[in-house]
Amino acid sequence: MRLLLVEDDKMIGEQLLDLLRAEGYAVDWVRDGELAEAALLAQAYDLLILDLGLPKRDGMQLLRSLRARKAQLPVLIATARDALEQRVAGLDAGADDYLLKPFELDELLARVRALLRRAQGRAEPVYEHMGVSIRPASREAWDAQGQAVQLSAKEWAVLEPLLARPGLVLSRQQLEEKLYGWKDEISSNAVEVYIHGLRKKLGAALIQNVRGVGYRVPKE
């Protein structure tokens, strides 16, 4: 999946770029409306994440231009413009979803996944591996014996990206970014604590340490 991120704030853009790439997406990031227009004309994308307050060309103008070309590209507006009339205008102009800043990183990822599923006509995903099953949309999980397991929100944040891509190694920093927002303090052993809890609930073999690199769910 290739995404176009249009965000002029350097700190937010860098964080979202790292987050989305850690999720396995190919991401191009541009910081003004003119560059975004050029990218959309030059490259096919699966999703556009669009800020509205952009230099050189406003995000609403960019969105209207995109829809005038009859492009069916899913668009997620992510902006600080929070007035009701602005949200209505964005959706009426052709956005598929509207997310207000500041937002939780997990919520942005969930909305990205939902828009991509909708665009592809896919049903709600269920990830199954080593006998463990999870349904992210409803936050249901089952162990290898088929018993329902209750997971905390932060256990979900660690488990879902690992179980969705067996064999992919995620670093401790990448998992920390899934646990916390931009301004939250990160305890030194947070990832280890949640992985320990997941191993107790779902089996010690489910999540492996890759020494000096990070963690993974092994391929069967």
Q: Could you explain how this protein is built, in words?
A:
The protein has 220 residues and is an alpha/beta fold. It has two domains: 2-120, Response regulator (Rossmann fold); 127-216, Arc Repressor Mutant, subunit A (Orthogonal Bundle), CATH 1.10.10. Helix content is 41%, strand content 18%. The chain has helices spanning 10-22, 33-42, 59-68, 84-92, 105-120, 153-164, 172-179, 190-202, and strands spanning 2-6, 26-30, 47-50, 75-79, 97-100, 127-129, 132-135, 140-142, 208-210, 214-216. Strands 2-1-3-4-5 form a five-stranded parallel beta sheet, with helices on both faces. β3, α3 (59-68) and β4 (75-79) form a beta-alpha-beta unit. α2 (33-42) packs parallel to α3. The longest helix is centred in the middle third of the chain and has 16 residues, at 105-120. It is elongated, with a radius of gyration of 19 Å. The two termini are 24 Å apart. The model has no long low-confidence stretch (mean pLDDT 87). Residues 2-116 form the Response regulatory domain. One of its GO terms (molecular function) is transcription cis-regulatory region binding.
List the helices and strands and how they pair.
Layout: E1 2-6, H1 10-22, E2 26-30, H2 33-42, E3 47-50, H3 59-68, E4 75-79, H4 84-92, E5 97-100, H5 105-120, E6 127-129, E7 132-135, E8 140-142, H6 153-164, H7 172-179, H8 190-202, E9 208-210, E10 214-216
Parallel strand pairs: 1-2, 1-3, 3-4, 4-5
Antiparallel strand pairs: 6-7, 7-8, 9-10
Pfam family, one: Trans_reg_C
Protein name: Two-component system OmpR family response regulator
Keywords: DNA-binding, Phosphoprotein, Transcription, Transcription regulation, Two-component regulatory system
